[in-house]
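Appendix B. Chain record.
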Amino acid sequence: MEFEKDNSFFTGRLKSIGYAIKGAYKLITTEHSVMVQFSIAIMLIIAGFIFHISREEWMLQTLAFGLVLGIESLNTAVEKMADFIHPEFHDRIGFIKDIAAGAVMFAATAAIAVGLLIYVPKFL
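Structure tokens predicted for this chain:
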């Protein structure tokens, strides 16, 4: 199948949105780490309604799990591409994959901090 560029602005954007939805669906249905993180995001949305969090807390919470899911998605893409290019173990590929995983850890740590700042006071 040959790539064919759509030069029309509107239909090109619609196709791009379709590809993005397809990619998000593949991530949520095939990648265990994304499944876990997406489930946590759903639980936080439910918790937000239960605890009546403020508008600012909603913004921070949404930004936090959006950041984690976005970085995790990029990490998955890096890992898949690295495995495709070099299927056998290689120190340099491992180094690249470790760096991508570290980026997820930074985002997840920040998200945990946001969650704690929002929800711990609700329990105290």
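Further analysis of this model is presented in Appendix C.
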